[in-house]
Amino acid sequence: MGFMKPSGITAGIGSVTPYVCAVLEKLGYPIYYSDVRAKMLMNKNTEIKGALIQLLGPQTYVDNELNTAYLSSKIFNDNSLRDKVNKIVHPSVRVDFEAWKDTHQDAELIFNEAAILFETGAHVLYDAIILVCAPIDVRINRLQKRDGQSRKIIEEKIDAQWKDAKKKNLTPYHICNDGKQPIQHQIDLVIERINKPF
Prior knowledge:
Mean pLDDT: 90
Helix content: 40-55%
Radius of gyration: 17 Å
Strand content: 5-15%
Shape: globular
Largest sheet: 5 strands, parallel
Order of helices and strands: EHEHHEEHHEEHHHEH
Low-confidence stretches: none
Number of helices: 9
Distance between the termini: 21 Å
């Protein structure tokens, strides 16, 4: 049995897609983790490494490993530079995803988890996008516990991303990960809607 075009799953920082993805995987749905694979490719793909060093300088890698703190600091407030990095990395991620997708031909549904599906316009490549969202205060508290950063820095990171309200206008499939509402029940309802969209 073949599948439709893959579905996407995305969220703003602090909404925690990995927990939702873990539930989906437990239910038997394969998930490709774009951000994880992108980091792997940035460390292993010599063409990507060369292009990033040319763009950002030799300190992009330390002991042949991606200097993620340096990369984040360079692109955080520089949309133009972020776009250039994405144009270097994303084509290879796309090829990697297509190869992964071909190994799951019999799956009823497969998912691509990525942070910026809407921002890059990649959402049009998918049959459905699940948006994982959470209240701002919940997201801030999670990030403070995880990263130990100030509320101001976290708010700047959240403000740099699209608002959930804007994303909700682009997909009818939403899961609230506020730590209160049961996740699996929401997933069951969303999967049912994806499989029977009309």
